[in-house]
Structures are given as C-alpha cells and as structure tokens.
C-alpha cells in the first residue's frame, strides 16, 4: 500500500464518522445558507493575458507525513491574516486530521478571519466532502488525479462548479496531466512531491509544466524553501506556487510571502 492509499483509508473512516453526525441533507442546507464562493480562478490570475505576477497559495499545515510536526499553529486565523497581509491570493487550509492535524474547525476559523479565497486542502474521494467544503466556506477544492478515476474527476469537478467553487487538479506525471486536461481542468497543479513515496523532485515542475494546456492556471506545488526555488518555478511557467512548510516554520510569514512574490515577479518579467 502506498502512503497515499494509506492516507485515503483514514480519510474515508473519518468522513464516515462525520457523516453519522451530519447527514448529506443537513450539509446541503448549510451550504445553501453559506455566502457564495469567491472566484479563486480570478484570484489566481484568471485569463492568461492578465497573469503578470506570481500568485501565492499559502498553506496552513501543522504536521505532514514527510516531515512530522511542523508548527503548532494554535491560532490559524491569526496566521491567515498574516498570509493575506503579505499578499497571498488564496489560503490553503489542510483539513485532514490523522496525518496533518487539521480540521474543518480550522477552515471555519480562517473563513471568519479573511476575505480572500480559501482552498479546502484534503483528499477528496466522495461528494460528501465537496458539500462539506462549501458548507464551511471553501471556494476551491483539491482533486488529486492519482486518487481518482476519470469519472470521479469529471463528476467531482462538475459538482464543485455547480456549487460555485473552483477546482485545483493536482498532477505528478504526463499521463495525469492528460487526464486533468481531459477533465477540462482550469487550474492544474504539478506536485513535485510524489504522494506514493514522499520524494520531492523540484526539477519535475520544469519537465511537466510545458504540457499543461494553454489557458489553464499553472500551480507549482511543494518544495519551496527560498526565493531561488520560487524563481525556478516562475521561470519555468508557474502562475502560482503552493507553499506550506516554508511559511508555517517561518517567524515572519508575511515578509516571506512578499519576498516570494518579488522573486516570482522578477522571473516572470524575464520569461515574458
Ligand atoms: O506534505 C506531505 O508530506 C504530504 C504527504 C502526503 C500527501 C500530501 C502531502 N502534502 C500535501 C502537499 O502537497 C503540500 O502540503 C503542499 O504542496 C505544500 O508543500 P510544502 O511547501 O513542501 O510544505
């Protein structure tokens, strides 16, 4: 069993426990009473012609399978405010509990604190989680191609769009990019972390980004340590970066985001 398979076993068990407490019908009522989703596609640059700066998706993650404990984050809302002040375009809230020590309560707290789009970062394997995301104020959800069939990719994307949300479709191989494109994904991420082995290969982004269909927002996910990594991703076609560890373990995340945006803008200016 791969790391990803193992995570998904736990995700399903935890979801079934929540479903026993909150039915799908109740979730639908809550979603209907939630403020409309913000436009994460536009926040990440929207049409290709207007993507003149690097966008940052700043992640709130306490722990990870690859690194163990990263940061206690007792007040995720306060961290989210720092991220937004630093110029993050989207905040990613890891809600998976067993491996990442996240929760939907984190998403609620962040939703109440900032007015920029939120990504519910989890391992989506059931439509129940998509209704949950919307009911808790998410604007964007993650679909990991390696974890889903083509039919699930299409159906989960369609449901997310019906609920007004956008979808970040995560890939790691050329075949997965083809599958994301076939599902008409408008925001496509290349995760340089292999979720089956946890290996990080930053050079993977440059080798895959060129095969992402023109028009899609291109997100470089994982492995950002410093401004050089940001420049590398931006110089090789990233419209946005998704950063977790480097921000949660920094004492000045607001300044770090500003620095990353400046490095990205400089690399994009050379690229275009
Ligand atoms: O982070 C992990 O160890 C991990 C393990 C298994 C599945 C997913 C995992 N992380 C999710 C992510 O992709 C990252 O949280 C995200 O891209 C940010 O990465 P980083 O900046 O390297 O923290």
UniProtKB/TrEMBL annotation:
Residues 4-259 form the Indole-3-glycerol phosphate synthase domain. The keyword Lyase applies. SUPFAM superfamilies: Ribulose-phoshate binding barrel. GO terms for biological process: L-tryptophan biosynthetic process. It is an enzyme of class 4 (lyase). Keywords: Amino-acid biosynthesis, Aromatic amino acid biosynthesis, Decarboxylase, Lyase, Tryptophan biosynthesis. Belongs to the TrpC family. This is Indole-3-glycerol phosphate synthase.
């Amino acid at each position: 069993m791969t790391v990803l398979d193992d995570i998904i076993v736990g995700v399903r068990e935890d979801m079934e426990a929540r479903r026993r407490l909150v039915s799908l019908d109740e979730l639908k009522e809550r979603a209907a009473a939630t403020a409309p989703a913000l436009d994460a596609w536009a926040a990440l640059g929207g049409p290709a012609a207007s993507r003149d700066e690097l966008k940052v998706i700043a992640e709130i993650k306490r722990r990870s399978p690859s690194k163990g404990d990263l940061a206690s984050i007792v007040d995720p809302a306060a961290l989210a405010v720092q991220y937004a002040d630093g110029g993050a375009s989207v905040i990613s809230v890891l809600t998976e509990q067993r491996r990442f020590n996240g929760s939907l309560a984190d998403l609620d707290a962040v939703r109440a604190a900032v007015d920029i789009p939120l990504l519910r970062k989890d391992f989506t394997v059931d439509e129940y989680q998509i209704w949950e995301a919307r009911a808790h104020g998410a604007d964007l959800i993650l679909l990991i191609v390696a974890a889903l069939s083509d039919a699930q990719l299409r159906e989960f994307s369609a449901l997310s769009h019906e609920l007004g949300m956008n979808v970040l479709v995560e890939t790691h191989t050329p075949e997965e990019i083809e599958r994301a494109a076939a599902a008409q994904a408008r925001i496509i991420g290349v995760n340089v972390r292999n979720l089956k082995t946890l290996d990080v290969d930053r050079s993977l982004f440059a080798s895959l980004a060129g095969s992402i269909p023109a028009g899609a927002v291109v997100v470089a996910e994982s492995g950002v340590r410093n401004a050089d990594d940001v420049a590398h991703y931006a110089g090789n076609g990233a419209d946005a970066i998704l950063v977790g560890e480097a921000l949660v373990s920094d004492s000045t995340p607001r300044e770090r985001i500003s620095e990353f945006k400046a490095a990205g803008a400089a690399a994009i200016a050379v690229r275009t």
